[in-house]
Design brief:
single chain, about 250 residues, alpha+beta, Immunoglobulin-like, four-stranded antiparallel β-sheet, 3 helices
């Protein structure tokens, strides 16, 4: 009888030791019981924008995948890829964030998840984006016309820029007589144009193939006759001359 009692106590002891050997590693390594509470701390997946995206107005729409119900997200935006120059460090239950008023330059962002127990997981892989405005309209000089051609010049602001020149008989450019894209330098010569009054304008295209606004239209005349815009002043000059000479 005493032998059975001893065997029973020994079996219970082995059972307790086995149970503790299973539970203690789970507590110390974050697995098992505590791991169940850290399921929602998996790093979110960054959805948009794509890496190296460009904003021209300093506004960005960031979004990432959800990591579980009642998950809090930790969003960081840095001016350096090492995240040692944080400019935004916020927490939110939303899976998207709108940012406005960013200055020109490169930025890096990442997101982590915090579950309902306050446990924060690892940050996601970071992505970058750049804020760079569209190129300014070039300053177009007055065109120089000859009998066979017209030359246009403007001020260049970047070696990487290309240019887009339009010539039209209408100031609103509803129809164009010449439309030249991807001009490599700050000068271009156009062949013979029909006689008449024209308007020209030019825009810049940056290294990302994004085009800025056109310059103010520049008017010019092609042909031997006096342009209609100059007839009025010339008539006044002739009238004054006739009066001084006493010619009725």
């Amino acid at each position: 009888m005493r032998r059975d009692f001893f065997h029973n106590r020994l079996a219970i002891g082995f059972f307790i030791v086995a149970a503790l050997s299973f539970l203690l590693p789970a507590v110390s390594t974050g697995e098992g019981i505590e791991a169940a509470s850290s399921v929602s701390t998996v790093a979110p997946e960054l959805l948009s924008p794509e890496d190296k995206f460009r904003s021209v107005d300093g506004t960005m729409e960031l979004s990432w995948s959800p990591s579980g119900i009642e998950t809090l997200y930790h969003i960081q935006i840095s001016a350096r890829p090492q995240f040692d120059k944080i400019i935004i460090d916020e927490k939110s239950y939303n899976t998207e964030k709108r940012i406005e008023g960013l200055e020109t330059g490169w930025f890096y962002w990442r997101v982590s998840a915090i579950n309902k127990d306050g446990l924060e997981g690892k940050f996601s892989e970071s992505r970058s984006f750049v804020v760079r405005p569209l190129p300014e309209p070039p300053s177009l000089s007055p065109p120089a016309s000859t009998k066979t051609s017209t030359t246009f010049r403007w001020k260049r602001t970047s070696e990487e820029e290309r240019y887009h020149l339009q010539i039209s008989k209408n100031k609103d450019f509803s129809e164009t007589s010449v439309d030249l894209k991807s001009i490599e330098g700050p000068r271009v010569t156009v062949g013979t144009l029909e006689e008449g009054d024209y308007f020209a304008r030019v825009s810049a295209i940056d290294e990302d193939a994004l085009e800025g606004s056109f310059s103010e239209p520049q008017s010019f005349y092609v042909g031997p006759k006096v342009p209609s815009s100059n007839i009025g002043p010339l008539m006044i000059m002739f009238g004054v001359a006739f009066m001084l000479l006493g010619i009725p």
